[in-house]
Amino acid sequence: MLLHLSTWHEVEVYLEQSKGIILPIGSTEQHGPTGLIGTDAICAEAVAKGVGEVIKAMVGPTINVGMALHHTAFPGTISLRPSTMILLIRDYITSLTKAGFTKFYFINGHGGNIATLKAAFSETYAHLEDLQIPNASKVQCQIGNWFMCGSVYKLAKELYGDEEGSHATPSEVALTQYIYPEAIKQVLLSSEVASSHKIYSATNFRECYPDGRMGSNPALATPEHGKQFYDLAVKELGNSYLEFMNSD
Hints:
GO terms for molecular function: hydrolase activity, acting on carbon-nitrogen (but not peptide) bonds, in linear amides; metal ion binding. With 248 residues, the protein is an alpha/beta fold. It has helices spanning 8-15, 39-55, 82-99, 114-131, 150-160, 170-179, 202-208, 223-246, and strands at 20-25, 58-59, 103-108, 140-145.
């Protein structure tokens, strides 16, 4: 059930049986020579919709832009500052809490969002209590990173070994290929790819990772692999969501 394709009355009826909502969040950032700029948001949205369909949960609109300041030296990247993202997440949760939701499960597609999301949750808990919003003490937030699912990680290692890398990975590129086969990009990639550099400024990132990849070989990706990753992520995060909903 998609929030943006529902009426207020349908949401009201849904809240009579569940207080949970899934919120996909990704990023709009470079993903190497063959990865789509929207990769992180595309993956999070697809997996979130899949989970919602399987377990009949409400799915909110995708937050397409995240914290990707270190990628902004590459054309096309759009980023929020951590402080801006914290306020955005806080306002999302505050609005939905006023409507009656208390369980917020963020399906995330971007590693760079994790620290800011956790900070946003802490800010939001305090904010809701300061406002004395009803049910504020019942609000709980959790992150489900599809790319960190145990089953996804295991398959990526089996298929790609060390060539999975840590950014512009064949696993995430494969998932976008499954979702958007018409947008598959083919470019001859250098066999030499940078890895293991620490992340600092955007300029430094591009100097260390000139083509945007971090130890990865996305040429190994296929739409068939993407379908496997999709199925595994939907199953694992679906179970995680249900555990979250059943917890105190």
